[in-house]
């Protein structure tokens, strides 16, 4: 994928060398973790002034790492102050843009923590007023809920400070930009993700300055509460929030049925959309779903129930709505053979390129990481931090193993008492390998392990895609599955959803009017 470019201009905070290195590390990590990653709607990015990015927090450490990699400019992230006391880690996260936040629950002296936190909010507000960029998770915690948790007032308090400071210095007012985080499964390796930049929030006029300190405090608190409510609604809209994961799955599966039905009706070939296109389709379906549930529940209920039964049956059969929609009328043996050839071709290239280096350099730490996660799961760690723990242990285990493997092979090649050294010196050409500088060989090997691992991941992704295609062709040729009944029912559901969508003005339509800040999409859906 292509990452967004950094803003240019004299008013933009400079990106230090350490920050660039850490962001490059974040980008490399995320490009390996996800097999597909999109950053879209970057036209919503303000061109001048400070920015506060807000997002929901469903996936532990993955969320800030992904946004640190994706969002342009020097990004500041609030983190628990206790992390800054850890040797080395404290220096790294500070260089990476992290700022300490003092929570009352993290200290025995509540009053002192509140005072330090208040000072931190002032400092962050001033930084944003001077063109800085801040990433904030207003929920204040990571979670596994299907919807957004209650937002804290910290984001509103910071932006109020920043707006006042910008007004005093006659600078461009800073903006709040909601960010939608969407994952096919953030806790699994090589899944898909999308970062959607929403339009900046429209904020109410800041409270006037009064001489009475108590009166000023009341005005500020009332303003902060109003803005916090708007922030919570914006996060719900940006994240496609629902009350249960079952509803979210129904929306995503329904979106794929609509996509396939529109392709069939227009006579186009059914292909898989990008994940970013899927997010936009899910946003439209969610808006229509919510509108009909509020205004015409008697019409939407039968459709929801029929969809639920259909998707449940598909899951029990181990097939997807795409498999049903894309099935040809007569699956030929030629199509199966082409899919088999693609899989064999991918496997041959992977084995040919990966060879001993990818296996030796990446399989042992990968298996160690797998066993570590198995142990953590047995201990009952929260589902929301599975991905976090997987990344954290991998960041530790892989470099340690690469260093160990590089040292071992360097010694094996260059130590005069090594059997391999003696064997290589029996041939004049192979003997040149034993004359390489030990330091040079060590560093070449140290760099080669991650390169071979990344090559392996790309080839492995192609292998998995071709395997899924092969499995799909095998399922299509199975006579025991009643494909005609499944296709007929899915076409009925798709036709009903398309007809429903055509009767409504939904997000993305030419007539669509973006909702005001604090309003959800479904509140602005109208009948045609």
Q: How much is the radius of gyration in Å?
A: 27 Å
Would you tell me the structural class of the helices and strands? alpha/beta
Number of domains: 3
Strand numbers in spatial order across the main sheet: 1-7-6-2-5-3-4
Summed up, what is this model?
The protein is an alpha/beta fold and 528 residues long. The protein contains 15 helices and 9 strands. The strands form 2 sheets. A 7-stranded mixed β-sheet has the order 1-7-6-2-5-3-4, with helices on both faces. It has a two-stranded antiparallel sheet with strand order 8-9.
Please explain how this structure is put together.
- This protein has 528 residues and is an alpha/beta fold.
- It has three domains: 17-238, Glycerol-3-phosphate (1)-acyltransferase; 245-331 and 480-527, no CATH class; 333-476, no CATH class.
- It has 15 helices and nine strands.
- It has helices spanning 17-33, 62-70, 89-95, 110-129, 154-168, 213-238, 245-266, 275-295, 297-317, 321-326, 333-379, 386-414, 419-424, 438-476, 483-502, and strands at 34-40, 51-55, 75-80, 98-101, 133-136, 175-183, 191-197, 504-505, 526-527.
- It has a seven-stranded mixed β-sheet, with helices on both faces. A two-stranded antiparallel ribbon has the order 8-9.
- Helix 9 runs antiparallel to helix 15 (483-502) and helix 11 crosses helix 12.
- The longest helix is centred in the last third of the chain and has 47 residues, at 333-379.
- The protein is flat, with a radius of gyration of 27 Å.
- The model has no long low-confidence stretch (mean pLDDT 86).
